[in-house]
Amino acid sequence: MLCVSFLCMESVRSERVLADMDGSALEFNRVSMVFPDGTEALQDVSFSVEPGEFVTIVGPSGCGKSTLLRIASGLLDPSSGSVEVDQERIGYVFQDATLMPWRTVQGNVELIPELHGYKKTERQALTKAVIDLVGLNGFEKHYPKSLSGGMKMRVSLARTLTLRPPVFLFDEPFGALDEINRERLNEETQELFKNEGFAGLFITHSIPEAVFMSTRVLVMSARPGQLVAEFDVPFKFPRKPGLRFDPQFAELSGKVSKALRGAYT
């Protein structure tokens, strides 16, 4: 499990802005997206993510879930509508770990603070802290080719954590993992969320994953993607593995599943 002590980061981090930001951390205002080939991916999507909220989107393949993340990050401009977010302070965790094979674990984690001009001593202190945080201490000198899929995703999380972003975007990061590793990383990521207080927007095709991770679940329709249902998740953090077998968890998962089946029609 993840270490939740941040004492080693206190000497190098700047003032926290995670949980005390004014207003929404991320807000979509009537966002629509039509690609140059005429594909209408999104239609009039509006919702917000508050500081300290973890929102998950489920929906049919091709409904524009990942497009929303790319618009939020500034990688795409919407055809209409707007997004309010500080794009300089977003953490983005992709479907693939996107590690540089010629860099060690430490080298990959240092990449973002290196690009931001941090001094070597600062980079090393940040890197040590987040590597310990995600449970990879002892693997600093390993290269990606020697890591399991779950360990690669931990490196990706650690790299993103170095700058302590107040908004995290997760583009189905655990979809390629086996069930045990996926559930373990679900638990560890929600532990990070509980302790860090960032605003999270998570994309997945897994309904149990969505319910386990989230404070709120949104369901999108088939393309062009629109929001068709919303569910508040009442379970308190930290959430233990046994929650997945709780009758209330199963009932809520069933309601999300029913809404998702309706979204395909």
Overview of this protein structure:
It is built from seven helices and nine strands; from the N terminus they run E-E-E-H-E-E-H-H-H-E-H-E-H-E-E-H. It has helices spanning 65-73, 105-115, 120-133, 149-161, 179-196, 207-213, 247-263; strands spanning 26-34, 40-49, 54-58, 80-84, 90-93, 167-171, 199-203, 216-220, 227-232. The chain is globular. The protein has a single domain (7-99, 166-263), classed as P-loop containing nucleotide triphosphate hydrolases (Rossmann fold), CATH 3.40.50.300. It is α/β, with parallel strands linked by helices. The chain has a six-stranded mixed beta sheet with strand order 5-6-7-3-8-9, with helices on both faces.
Question: Care to give the gist of this entry?
Answer:
By secondary structure, the protein is α/β, with parallel strands linked by helices. The termini are far apart.
Backbone CA Rg: 18 Å
What's the overall geometry? Answer: globular
CATH architecture: 3-Layer(aba) Sandwich
The CATH fourth-level homologous superfamily? P-loop containing nucleotide triphosphate hydrolases
DSSP summary, beta strand count: 9
Number of domains: 1
Number of helices: 7
Which sheet architecture does the biggest sheet show? 6 strands, mixed
Mean pLDDT: 86
CATH class: Alpha Beta
Question: How is the largest sheet built, in terms of strand order?
Answer: 5-6-7-3-8-9
Note the beta-strand portion. 15-25%
Structural class: alpha/beta
Q: What is the third-level CATH name, the topology? A: Rossmann fold
Distance between the termini: 40 Å
Order of H and E elements:
EEEHEEHHHEHEHEEH
Task: Flag low-confidence runs.
Answer: 1-21
What is the helical fraction, as a range of percent? 25-40%
